[in-house]
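Hi support team,

I submitted a single chain yesterday and got back a structure, but I'm not sure I'm reading the token output correctly. Could someone confirm the output below corresponds to the sequence I sent? I've pasted both exactly as they appear in my results page.

Thanks,
R.
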Amino acid sequence: MSGAYVDTVESVWDYPRPPRLERLPFTVTIEFDGAEVARTTDAWRVLETSHPPGVYLPRDAFTSGALEAAPGGATVCEWKGQAAYLDVVGASGRRAARAAWTYPTPTAAFEPIAGFVAVYPGRVDRCTIDGVEVQAQEGDFYGGWITPNIRGPIKGAPGTRGW
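Hi R., thanks for writing in. Yes, this is the structure output for that exact sequence:
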């Protein structure tokens, strides 16, 4: 492991329920279609029991044209409220459908992430926190970011949705 972010081992079973917001004071990057499409030091983590952290970046961290409203329905999180989905679009026009989501008007506890954008790391080319590459959470429902310091077992794999 390298980078200050991964210096402390965390168990997803020590995260709270209901989830909590925590500032992420490290450089976060997202790459897609062969280029960096987002970079920030102003991110948030959402920590919830059995899940790796969800990472939310300010919308202005994304390059112009990298996010477009996605067709299809919204989903509702019991803690954060109604999510709207976004496609991630690369400079060549390559598109990752519904690869990102946002809470335009989240519940009161999550107001700090209003308009911030989370990305499924498995639907883009690469995500990093503090220079450390992120692994995608298994499954297609959750969008947690797994770094080498995160320990499980982690919800998301087949047979774990009912935990």
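A quick pointer for reading it: Residues 36-146 form a domain with the Metal Binding Protein, Guanine Nucleotide Exchange Factor; Chain A fold (CATH 2.170.150.40). Let us know if anything else looks off.

Best,
Support desk
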